[in-house]
Amino acid sequence: MPSSTSSFKREVPTRIRFRHLLLGMLTASAILLSLELCWRSLGYVPSIVDDYALWAFNRDRIHDSDENTVVLLGGSRIQVGFSLDTFSQRYPGHTVIQLAIDGMQPLEILHDLADDESFRGTVLCSVNAYTFSETELATETPHLDYYKRQYNLNALLNRKISTLFQSRLVIVNPILNLQNVALKYAAAGRLPIQYILTDIRRSRVADYSRLDMAEHRAWRMNTAVKAITSEPHLPPDVWFKQAMRVDGYVRKIQGRGGNVVFIRYPTSDERYDLDTRYYPRKQYWDVFAEHSSAGTVHFMDYPSLRNFNCPDTSHLDQKDVIPFTSNLLDILAEKGLF
Amino acid sequence: MLFNSFSFILFFIAVITVYNFPLRWSTRKLFLLAASYLFYAAWNPPFVLLLWLSTIVDWFAAKKIHTSARTGTRRKYLALSLITNLGLLGFFKYSTFFLENVNILANLFGTRSAAPLPDIILPVGISFYTFQTLSYTLDIYHRKTKPWHSFLDYALYVTFFPQLVAGPIVRAVDFLPQCSEAKRTSGSQLSWGLFLLLFGLFQKMVVADGLLAPIAEKVFDSGEPLNFMSAWTGVLAFSGQILCDFSGYSTCAIGIALCLGFHLPSNFHFPYASIGFSDFWSRWHISLSSWLRDYLYIPLGGSRNGAVRTFVNLMITMLLGGLWHGASWTFILWGGIHGFYLVIEHTLRRIAPPSRLWQGTSAKLLLVLATYVMVCFAWVFFRANSIGQASVIAREMVGIRTTFHAAGGIGASIAAAVLAITAIILGTQFMFRDQTLEAVVQRFPAWVWTLCAALMIVSLVTLTGEDRAFIYFQF
Known about the structure:
heterodimer; A: about 350 residues; alpha/beta; five-stranded parallel sheet; two-stranded antiparallel ribbon; globular; disordered N terminus; B: about 475 residues; mainly alpha; about 70% helix
């Protein structure tokens, strides 16, 4: 019976031979090698792409965890502002897992850890008053959804192979995607600036000396103002009720022998002013700290933490991460955590 | 396992290597079958059970249909096949949609209904392999073919990994005879197959994901205000994205199959160079449109029972075709719009037969552009997150302002870039609309394709976008 589908068996063209493909591959390799050398000569270095699979890989490590496991939650502040090496050197018997996600709030992940019976360690969770606003509480984290529904051996294999390339080659870095480079050059007359480096543990360092800080600070503040003012501003009592919803997660973790500490990371200058204008400490953070079952650390309460300056008003520079982490660990040790 | 993943590259190298070992043909087919199950299990191992269920039920049902003389018995086994396959599809794909609408309907009548909505994972490829196995039992029921003698061949037909999860939907009469003779990958098949794989990946990763998807998402997903320019830019970007994404996948599938010595049917034939909608559906997702024609439209009566019945059959076929794409009213509307287009076209053909005026190149180009613009309007409903959003975008496209914002979310330079990419796609498709890709390749010297291969490889490393799932995986 003739097929009802069209164009079934078609002649294989003879124009393309295997040697042509091989030559094409060799030509492409030469172009890519040239590009790689060019980028490196301009100062770019390899950096790991922090994707869903990398987060899921680190989340999966929780299953092998014990009471000496420390999990970092939060956003970019703790991702660039906590030195995993400093922690590991000080506490070699402990494991630290970085689960903070740039641009996301941590509460759904805290909830997930609370429900995970295998987790009995310590959570250091970077938050600010804005974290407990209604929209942020309801925000779903796609990383968690990916971990639960899609992460498997195949994803792990792909992640490991990607790491091999990303840790050795500059050309696979998304900021050097040629379209991105062209758009950046057209808009700003310069190449993309690589000021953040990420490693396989999802730890980041930010070198703000590479940036035009006036421009970057202005952009950072503009973004922050939009984010905060787009939310309906919650009165203290409503905000407090929402914030205390996470206390159940805290007590669950504590019930298994674990700990939770909420940390208010440093912000500087106009960013700190903005935060305190919308969420005055006395009416928000202090009330929460007084009633929360978790431990709390506010950077302004400790001289060893409050004198760090955030070049972009919101994040620590790489030169300050080790001393800040060291000081923070001193404070946490005093609280009896480690 | 995605074609655009490192694990697939390793898998493919391993499969090609072992496949070409000097082993018996039946052993090599068994190896391909095992590799195909492994390929599918890489997503979610338990769902391999669904593949087995569909395979075994239809193999058994088809045999019984063929050997039974009584119509009642034959119908009983056909019903078994239909209920199994459509039941699987219905449960996994449509049960949440069904319950959502029950709740809405009940609430409309004043009943406070809140049937819990199940959280069901959609098995990848279920829409494709259920249709594929159904075509086997239907062909046997209609005595168009006989049951195949080898269960191994049949299982390989259902599970063949290049086309398992997103087509093309292959007919048994096209695939099973290929299993009879032993195959080895010839040099020309390997070269052309690898080139197709490279080209398919380039279409998907560079053009669809890298260039067009971010722009389409900016219009459809960002919630930013729209205007005439941004609405059109978003829709044109999506029209290019879905073409390159889906035809890219099909191209990869055909190339991979060819590397194993198997021929799969073409699934796209320069669809944006269509003149009219019958032509469009003979060029877009050919394996699905022909399936719907052969197993739905023609059994309903096709065009054999007068104009009105023809139009009803067209609408039913296209509405169900829309529903096949997704459990949402927007997909059904999209199908309905295409059904409406086909009805209008059939009507025009009856009352105004084709004239010589439309034979010239300029006239053809005009018709191609008109068809493309109307296809784009339909894409709005396919892509939109809701009927409301589709309505807003469609109105902006015709110049009806839906907001008071003068500025949309898209700048003039991006709009110009999308227009340029669209012009290249349309121009290329129009130039080669009456040829096959193979014929086009044969026309140009080898160095052109060497250069193309090199540029595609460089682009795959330096120009890819964020990793997005193939659009048709969600179907």
